Amino acid sequence: MKILSGFPKNDGYRMPGEFENHIGCFMIWPERRDSWQYGGIAAQNAFAKVAAAIAKSEKVTMLVSHSQYDNARRLLPENIRVVEMSTDDAWARDVAPTFVVNDNGNIRGIDWGFNAWGGLIDGLYFPWDKDNKVARKVCDLLDKDVYNARNFIMEGGAIHSDGEGTIMVTEACLLSKGRNPQLSKTEIEENLKLYLGADKVIWLKNGIYNDETNEHIDNICAFTSPANVVLAWTDDENDPQYAFSKSCYDILSNSTDAKNRHITIHKIPQPSPIYMTDEECNGLDYFDDEPTRSNNYRLAGSYVNFYISNGAVIMPGFNDKNDIIAKNILQNLFPTREVIQIYARDILIGGGNIHCITQQYPSGIKNI
Amino acid sequence: MKILSGFPKNDGYRMPGEFENHIGCFMIWPERRDSWQYGGIAAQNAFAKVAAAIAKSEKVTMLVSHSQYDNARRLLPENIRVVEMSTDDAWARDVAPTFVVNDNGNIRGIDWGFNAWGGLIDGLYFPWDKDNKVARKVCDLLDKDVYNARNFIMEGGAIHSDGEGTIMVTEACLLSKGRNPQLSKTEIEENLKLYLGADKVIWLKNGIYNDETNEHIDNICAFTSPANVVLAWTDDENDPQYAFSKSCYDILSNSTDAKNRHITIHKIPQPSPIYMTDEECNGLDYFDDEPTRSNNYRLAGSYVNFYISNGAVIMPGFNDKNDIIAKNILQNLFPTREVIQIYARDILIGGGNIHCITQQYPSGIKNI
User: Fold this and answer.
1) What are the distances in angstroms from CA B270 to CA A197, B301, B324, B348?
2) How far apart are CA B123 and CA B132, in angstroms?
3) Which of A3, A133, A140 is the best substitution to test chain B (most B C-beta atoms within 10 A)?
4) Whether B78 and A141 lie within 8 Å, measured CB to CB
5) Cβ atoms < 10 Å from Cβ of B154
6) Cβ-based interface (< 8 Å): residues of B facing A
7) Subunit contact A84:B81, Cβ cutoff 8 A
8) Residues 6 or more apart from B331 whose CB is under 8 A from it?
9) Are A169 and A158 in contact, with CB atoms under 8 Å apart?
10) How far is residue A198's CA from residue A9's CA, in Å, rounded to a whole number?
11) Is A260 left (phi over 0), alpha (psi -120 to 50) or beta?
């Protein structure tokens, strides 16, 4: 593994769309007791279901601590590869490398700086040193060269790419004080273009209400193909989510992508607001003498937080009346893939969802 | 990864000779402070030299703890893959899987039971649980199926194969009370044949004097090709090694291999006896309130403890007058490979040598 300076764009690399072909997917086994209630057993079972669904059409590698290796092996199907790696929590999207590819099918990783979504300003745990090493270690495991971008704080969940030069982000996240306060919006945009091989960045303002990642893009809006996005939506004007989603809609309606196309916006309804229960809170360890969740805390649930595998779309369900509506919307947008809906409350309690716990390893082949 | 019951022999698998083609080699980064003096820095540098020499002709994967990942990455060339794995010490030969292959080029691992060379009877450290999981984890990493042989205590250093049905072992090791005391010699031999796809086991009595593995075969005698072995030798009849080596010589002289060939014995001189110095002992942590080495402790040095890579033979040197003689003997026996001699006192202090810290991952292709 070579550690590269410089920028992928200058070397002819770009970040593919998630809907392009993958070699496989990386996930991280959940075990942190202040993130996952009652020793994480329910979360582990949900992660295992997600992994099994992805593994139907691409290789899944589950990264797991030494102490949880046997348990992960027990709960995962044998076609999933289990590999030891130390982490601070279970968010592969944000700590595994963002991969870039070139036209010859070569693959490289990007090792962003990671500071637990805000470092000492508003980060969610301390320390985060193990997480910050994951991207480089995954590239080492794959024997792929890696760009050293550790001086730029970024997470995979904070960016979406259409694979054709357009990146989508939120200002709430990328301009947060806990990430790169020394950089202007223009400088951040320039970094994104250089690292992701892109020509245009679409800046939405906000994400999902109460999303503790400072409102990652991947919870509110996602490309389903170039010039097509799904946007989390509510018609309830009294919900703080309404203003967030409406603003996204307006910006997207007035945006063109890197290829000057107008963007078709497919609204996907939000589930009804989801709150922590007392019983769930009682199953969580405190962090630094404080509870990590309190009763009636509103969780940032969204159907947009799905993963596109080679053969399927794996999306969350919440036992909500909108589950089937959201599933049908995605099924129409992905006619060649099976949409698999997995009950995901036990993932959401940790703070994210199916997209957050996965990271695709693209093949460099554009079409499936 | 499938965990297999049953026996490789019945499935058409055999253990190749080390001189057959490899895909690569596994090693483990040394850091244990009661094994490696002064924080292991000298050992780490020696391991790095061995790894670099092997990496000239096959892929080396260095397994390393989380806490030593950055340091290993610093000291190893970039063409070596560094992968996190928890271990109790650094002996890949004994804790990584023994690989078997079939005629179609399929590869499987064997997950022997490991108990630190003698368990609670005369094992060298406690606990050994991390080491005992390494073989399975390596197979998982490689996505190769693995035979569950955990109820049979065995180490890779305790067996040599000619790849053509002959296994060579020592009684001192395999019949030791700390390994499989419930099994008779006949039952152990039958296990070896079934697991290694072999037809004949040659039992030497002893290995190298004071070898704390209970005298592993890989320190005293090795196949250089079918029907050819090198045997560690001394002409000094006052050295306890003399009787050990003489017995081996007599047994081998009167043995035939699985194909009924007589075995040609190539004597290789021992280095002069090697003793721990006071300064070296002072650099070692105690284990369980006891020193792990004392001044003038005789170390089990031997030139036979070499590794055969695709393109080279990597052998130890001791700054001894016999270094060059031993090197020339091996160079004559391996005319197509470069013999690379690496100063190995800092490996030997830990209790083994170059063969002990390596484990080949064969390709299933018989000829290089």
Assistant:
1) 60, 8, 12, 14
2) 13
3) A140
4) no
5) 26
6) 1-3, 59, 66, 69-70, 73, 78, 81-86, 130, 133, 137, 140-141, 143
7) no
8) B313, B339
9) yes
10) 7
11) left
Tokens at B166, concatenated: 């002959």
Q: Alpha-carbon Rg of chain A, whole angstroms? A: 19
What pLDDT does A113 receive? 98
Distance from CA of B105 to the nearest CA of A (A): 20
Residue A88, token pair as written in the block: 């601070």
Q: What is the mean pLDDT of chain B?
A: 97
Q: Which one-letter DSSP state was computed for residue A92?
A: H
Cα–Cα nearest to B367, from B8, B107, B17, B9: B17
Stretches where chain A sits below pLDDT 50 are none
CB pair distance less than 8 Å for B83 and A141: yes
**Active site annotation includes B248:** no
Considering only CA atoms, which of A163, A141, A32, A49 is closest in space to residue A96? Answer: A141
């070139």: which residue's tokens?
A: A102
- d(CA B37, CA B281) in angstroms, rounded, equals 7
Q: What is the pLDDT of residue B152?
A: 98
Instruction: Say if the Cβ atoms of A84 and B137 lie within 8 Å.
Output: yes
Q: Measure in Å the smallest separation between the Cα of A243 and chain B Cα atoms.
A: 45
Of A243, A278, A274, A289, nearest to A351 by C-alpha is A274
Task: Give the chain A residue whose CA is nearest to the CA of B85.
Answer: A84
Chosen from A66, A74, A79 to mutate, greatest number of chain B CBs within 10 A: A66
pLDDT tens readout for residues A178-237: 999 999 999 999 999 999 999 999 999 999 999 999 999 999 999 999 999 999 999 999
- Inter-residue contact A83 to A89 (CB < 8 Å): no
3-state DSSP assignment of residue A250: helix
Chain B residue at shortest CA distance from A138: B83
Whether the bond into A127 is cis, omega within 30 of 0? yes
Which residue is closest to B86 within chain A, CA to CA? A66
Identity at A86, one-letter amino acid code: S
DSSP SS3 for A299: strand
ipTM reported for the complex, 2 dp: 0.94
Instruction: Compute how many other C-beta atoms are within 10 angstroms of the C-beta atom of residue B296.
Output: 10
Q: Is pTM, for the whole model, over 0.90?
A: yes
**Nearest to residue A355, comparing CAs of A202, A193, A206, A213?**
A213
Distance CA A144, CA B27 (A): 20
Cα gap A293→A282, rounded to integer Å? 9
Distance between A131 CA and the closest CA of chain B, angstroms:
11
For the A3-362 domain, the top CATH level (class) is alpha beta
Q: Which H/E stretch holds residue A245?
A: helix A240-253
Cβ–Cβ < 8 Å for A127, A224: no
Compute the residue count for chain A. Answer: 368
Cβ contact, residue pair B78, A137, below 8 Å: no
Compare CB distances from A140 to B3, B59, B83 and report the shortest one's residue: B83
Cβ atoms of residues B364 and B106 within 8 Å: yes
How far is B181 from B186, CA to CA, in rounded Å? 12
Q: Whole-angstrom Cα distance, residue B178 to residue B155?
A: 13
